[in-house]
Amino acid sequence: MKNLVLITLTMLFALFSCNDKNMNQPDPMSFTSDFEADSDGWIGDFADYPAGEEAFYELTFERDTLPGPLEQNQWALKLSGNNHSDDLFMFVKKKVTGLEPNTVYYTTFTVEFASNIPDGMAGVGGSPGESVYIKVGGAPLEPKKMIEDNNHYRMNIDKANQNEDGENMKVIGDFSNDTEEAVYTLKTVTNENPFGISTDENGTLWVIVGTESGFEATTTIYYNSVTVEFY
After folding, report:
1. What pLDDT, in 10s, does the model give residues 24-52?
2. CB-based burial label for 106 (10 Å; 0-12, 13-18, 19+)
3. Does the predicted TM-score (pTM) go above 0.85?
4. What is the distance in angstroms between the CA of the first residue and the CA of the last residue of the chain?
5. How far is residue 28's CA from residue 195's CA, in Å, rounded to a whole number?
6. How many CB atoms lie within 10 A of CB 45?
7. Mind listing the pLDDT tens digit for each residue in 148-185?
8. Domain spanning 30-230, CATH architecture
9. In this structure, are strands 132-139 and 169-174 parallel, antiparallel, or unpaired?
């Protein structure tokens, strides 16, 4: 009889533990975009600049091959802009579906990009490397630029400015290439501490990767791959 009670209690404990796990820990999910076939659903855009000044800011987003001396048969997402506003934000975003509805997922980003800016380089307004911050994040709503009353484009999510963390985006590195050479080099950055991103009622969220610039001249970045893990 004691054995029967013990077995029953063990089964009930396992059942409730499983249910608690399902309630609090969604099934993990991850993806990697390497852009070899296409842009894999990533969309590029820009914010923190005056509306109508796209040509003056030399804003460019395209899928392109990596620059030399890197492997020029590899594809990447290229963003480029001339920062006249001391705060230009260049970003790519992607819609993610098939997650649990109304659920907070702990999220880790691993971003590999190409930079031609050596460590410690000085520049106008700030360093072209250490003053250009790599940010990642996400939200249940689509991150978009919006026109404010002063006719400037701002984001509809809280990304904060430059080297500050916002509610929806965190700083995970900078644009310097970790060398002393002004040549394009691949660099990988990741967030050491996972942070939460909520899904909407349909199990959808958006992820976003971008650069927040305090360098008042041109930055050109190539995103070679992005891996996002949800758990």
Report:
1. 678 999 999 999 999 999 999 999 999 99
2. middle
3. yes
4. 41
5. 14
6. 19
7. 989 999 999 999 999 999 999 999 999 999 999 999 99
8. Sandwich (2.60)
9. antiparallel
Structure tokens given for 18: 């499983």
Structure tokens at 5: 């009670």
Average pLDDT over residues 104-127: 95
Count of CB atoms situated within 10 Å of the CB of 163:
15
3-state SS string over the chain? CHHHHHHHHHHHHHHHHHHHHHHHCCCCEEEEECCCCCCCCCEEEEECEECCCCCCCCCEEEEEECCCCCCCCCEEEEEEEECCCCCCEEEEEEEECCCCCCCEEEEEEEEEEEECCCCCCCCCCCCCCCCEEEEEEEECCCCCEEECCCCEEEECCCCCCCCCCCCCEEEEEECCCCCCCCCCEEEEEECCCCEEEECCCCCCEEEEEEEEECCCCEEEEEEEEEEEEEC
Residue that the structure tokens 């978009």 belong to: 144
User: Token pair of 93, please?
Assistant: 């975003």
